[in-house]
Specification:
Layout lengths: L4 E2 L3 H5 L16 E6 L5 E6 L5 E6 L4 E5 L13 E3 L6 E6 L6 E6 L3 E6 L4 E7 L4 E6 L5 E6 L3 E6 L4 E7 L4 E6 L5 E6 L3 E6 L5 E6 L5 E6 L5 E6 L4 E5 L5 E5 L6 E6 L5 E6 L3 E6 L4 E7 L4 E6 L6 E5 L4 E6 L4
Parallel strand pairs: 1-18
Antiparallel strand pairs: 2-29, 3-4, 4-5, 5-6, 7-8, 8-9, 9-10, 11-12, 12-13, 13-14, 15-16, 16-17, 17-18, 19-20, 20-21, 21-22, 23-24, 24-25, 25-26, 27-28, 28-29
C-alpha cells in the first residue's frame, strides 16, 4: 500500500510570521567569546548529558574534549583530552543520552568510533560502509543511527558494536532523530518531507510535507516536547513530538538554514542561515526575540543542556565560540 503524504495543515500554509513583542532583553546582556581549538576547521560541537564537557570534531582528524562549567564558559582555555586514532576527517559526533562519558564520532573513512571521555581511548569501531554525515543515539542509548552520503541508513547495536539494520533509499536522506520511545526513526528527505521509519525494518509508515525544497536539519528539544525542521526553503517548522502535529512556522529570513538547536528548557530555538547572523525564536509564540552577528556564517549550534549558554561554530578554521552573559 502506498504511503500517504500528509499535507501541511491549513494553518501552516497560511501562517503569518510573528512580530517581536519586546522580549529582546532576555539576551541583551549576552556576548560572544571565541576559543582557538583545532588546527583545522571544526565540523561538529556537542555537550554531554550533564553539561560539564564539550566535544569538538575537526578536519585535523582529532576529537577534543573540553571541561567546562556551563555557567562560566570563560573557564575554557585548553582541551582536557585529545582523542586520537581517527585516520580521516571527523565529520560529526554525539554524546550518549544515558552515560556522561561516552560518545560516538563518524569520520570520512567510513568508521563510527566509540570513545571513553575519561581516558580519551577508542573503545569500539564499526564500519558503516559509506561516508557518514548524520548520526543520532536512541533515547535508551542501545542504538545509533548513521546516514551516509549514498542515502543509506544503518543502525548500530551499541552493545555488540555491529550494524543490525540497513536500508538504502532511492532519494536523498538527510538528518535523523529517534522518537521518544525508540520504536521509530524520523528522517528528512530531499523532497522536503519528514518521514517516520519503523525500527528495525526502517520501512516508512508515514510522511509529512514539511518544506517546499530540500529538508536538511532536524532537532528534538531536550524535554521531548517539540521537533523542529529546516531546509533550503528559508523556513523553520516546529511540530509536537507527541503526534507530530504542526505547532508553528517562522520564515522572516531570506536564505537557506545551516543549523538549528533548541535551548535546554524548550523555550527557544536558535537557527543560523547562510549570512553571518544567528537568530533566536521563542517557541511558544514563534516570534524572534534576538539576533547577533558572527564573524563568519555559522555551521553548527549547540545549546548547553542545563543553562542558557550557546556554543557555535563558524567557518573560520579551528575556532568555536560561546554566546553567554557570564564572561569575566
Amino acid at each position: 500500500m502506498p504511503i500517504q503524504l500528509i499535507p501541511p495543515q491549513p494553518a501552516e500554509a497560511m501562517a503569518e510570521p510573528k512580530v517581536s513583542t519586546g522580549k529582546e532583553s532576555l539576551f541583551a546582556g549576552y556576548k560572544s567569546r571565541s576559543v582557538r581549538a583545532h588546527l583545522g576547521r571544526i565540523y561538529a560541537l556537542c555537550w554531554n548529558k550533564n553539561g560539564d564537557k564539550l566535544a569538538s570534531a575537526s578536519h585535523d582528524e582529532t576529537l577534543k574534549i573540553w571541561s567546562c562549567d556551563g555557567i562560566h564558559p570563560s573557564s575554557i582555555e585548553q582541551a582536557l583530552l585529545e582523542c586520537r586514532g581517527n585516520k580521516s576527517v571527523v565529520a560529526n559526533l554525539a554524546w550518549s543520552p544515558v552515560e556522561n562519558d561516552t560518545l560516538v564520532s563518524i569520520s570520512a573513512d567510513c568508521k563510527a568510533n566509540f570513545w571513553d571521555a575519561r581516558s580519551g581511548n577508542c573503545v569500539g569501531t564499526v564500519n558503516v560502509g559509506g561516508s557518514p554525515i548524520y548520526l543520532a543515539w536512541s533515547p535508551s542509548a542501545k542504538d545509533v543511527a548513521v546516514v551516509t552520503k549514498d542515502d543509506v541508513i544503518r543502525t548500530i547495536d551499541v552493545r555488540t558494536r555491529s550494524v543490525h539494520a540497513f536500508k538504502a533509499f532511492d532519494y536523498e536522506i538527510n538528518d535523523v532523530r529517534w522518537t521518544l520511545e525508540g520504536d521509530h526513526l524520523l528522517s528528512l528527505t530531499g523532497e522536503g518531507n519528514l518521514e517516520v521509519l519503523r525500527n528495525p525494518s526502517l520501512e516508512c509508515s508515514r510522511k509529512y510535507s514539511s518544506h517546499g525544497r530540500v529538508a536538511r536539519y532536524l532537532d528534538v528539544d531536550p524535554q521531548g516536547i517539540f521537533l523542529a525542521t529546516a531546509g533550503d526553503d528559508a523556513t523553520l517548522t516546529v511540530r509536537s513530538m507527541s503526534d507530530l502535529s504542526w505547532h508553528g512556522s517562522y520564515y522572516e529570513f531570506d536564505s537557506a538554514v545551516r543549523s538549528i538547536g533548541f535551548s535546554h528548557d524548550a523555550s527557544f530555538l536558535a537557527f543560523a542561515t547562510e549570512d553571518e547572523f544567528i537568530e533566536i525564536v521563542e517557541v511558544e509564540e514563534m516570534e524572534s526575540v534576538h539576533e547577533f552577528k558572527c564573524r563568519t556564517p555559522c555551521v553548527s549550534i549547540a545549546w548547553h543542556p542545563k543553562e542558557s549558554v550557546m556554543a557555535y561554530i563558524g567557518e573560520e578554521g579551528g575556532t568555536f565560540s560561546f554566546f553567554s552573559k557570564s564572561f569575566s
